[in-house]
Amino acid sequence: MSQVIESIEHTQTAPEILLYPRIRKSPFFYASRRHGVRKYSVYNHHYHPRLYTDPVDEYWALVEGVTLWDVGVERQIEISGPDAFTFTQRLVPRDMRHCQVGQCKYVFVTAADGGIINDPVLLRIEENRFWLSLADSDVLLWCQGLAYHSGLNVSIREVDVAPVQVQGPNAKPVMVDLFGERVLEIPYYHLMEAELDGMSVVISRTGYSGEIGYEIYLRDANRHGEALWQRVFEAGRPHGMQVIGPCHIRRIEGGILAFGCDIWYDTNPFEVGMGYDWMVDLRGDDDFVGRTALERIKAEGVTRRLVGVEIDGPNVGYFTDGSMIDVFPVFDSAGATIGKVTSATRSPRQDRNIGYAMVPTSHAELGTPLRVEANTGMQDAVVVPKPFHDPRKDIPKG
Q1: In the prediction, which pLDDT does 49 show?
Q2: How many other CB atoms sit within 10 Å of the CB of residue 92?
Q3: Number of alpha carbons in the 13 Å side-chain half-sphere of residue 132
Q4: How many other C-beta atoms are found inside a 10 Å radius of the C-beta of residue 297?
Q5: What CA–CA distance (Å, rounded) separates 279 from 282?
Q6: Mean pLDDT score of the chain, rounded to an integer?
């Protein structure tokens, strides 16, 4: 067994969390934990700070101010070489001809059966250089295996690049203080190259919050992680910046999916309502992994769908507070188990329990009554529209 090298926390109310060499630390690990991390998870084989104060406090800090997140766990897989574009087009079902240099795209990486292996943000850094900013699965190995058998001249590697996120309505003034007015010219889901105190970074207008946000991707991250973190936090201090974990309350409100919860290897894009035209482009003749299966699924239709649900009754918790240790079973009006709630939270702004549930298509129509066995007991629920807030994404585009 690997040697235990240190302990993060040991209290009467929380179990001890031990650090092992086989679980990695982001380049911002030591800087971010000085702000008082209360909870970690393991994400992409890294320790991932999830909570600093409490979920509701962090939610209001995000939606009313500006926040800094350690998301160095989002490993960056670089696809480069003369055939990088061709390989990327085969890797994802989205048409990469619509992704220009300097642009970002939310994409699915699909398996041969149409299942979702990952849902990264893809950044086109150069004509034949792409980064995949990964969710929590081992896509590096998947890509290397595909490349080995592809016959293409392409290189697949994890690069020493790590992002932090600056999110919230006051994100723009912080970024202007750091990079000048030109940062305001970055369109939504685009990027620009920049330098900060001699550190090379890529800045994107992206994020996992549903709010105005930026991600700062630091090159040579293991060398400069501490310096970048301190520089960003000091720039944010006059604007009331607070360090938080990823805000699952806000991402659930905003219709943002979580890999491992709402989507998984056995979930296809059509089941989550993202299989039509833009995320899965079946109009051309370009082949990609999973195309045959997805064509069949589209023609036959799906038997289940991810829907929005409102859950009546007591507060079901806030996702990161341990209230959803396991999924909540979903029942029909006759008491038969028909599905599961994949994510749920209490929305402080809307004062109601909201979430997503995977249910049969026969129970996916708006207004369908359901029953949910939540952590607070059996509760009534109903299928409702999603996203729950800002459905046109006017806030992050602003």
Answers
A1: 96
A2: 26
A3: 31
A4: 20
A5: 10
A6: 93
Largest CA distance in the chain: 65
Residue 40 is encoded by which pair of tokens?
């970690």
Token pair 């240790």 is found at: 325
Report helix, strand or coil for 91: helix
Mean pLDDT of 249-256: 97
SS3 39: strand
Residue 314 CA to residue 336 CA, distance in Å, equals 23
| H or E stretch at 78 | strand 76-80
Q: How far apart are CA 324 and CA 210, in angstroms?
A: 22
Instruction: For residue 69, give every residue at least 6 positions away whose Cβ sits within 8 Å of its Cβ, in sequence order, or none.
Output: 164, 165, 167, 243, 244, 245, 246
Q: How far apart are CA 315 and CA 179, in angstroms?
A: 42
Distance CA 56, CA 351 (A): 12
Count other Cβ atoms within 10 Å, centred on residue 149: 7
Tens of pLDDT, residues 14-38: 556 677 778 999 999 999 999 999 9
| Contact status, residue 114 vs residue 290, Cβ threshold 8 Å | yes
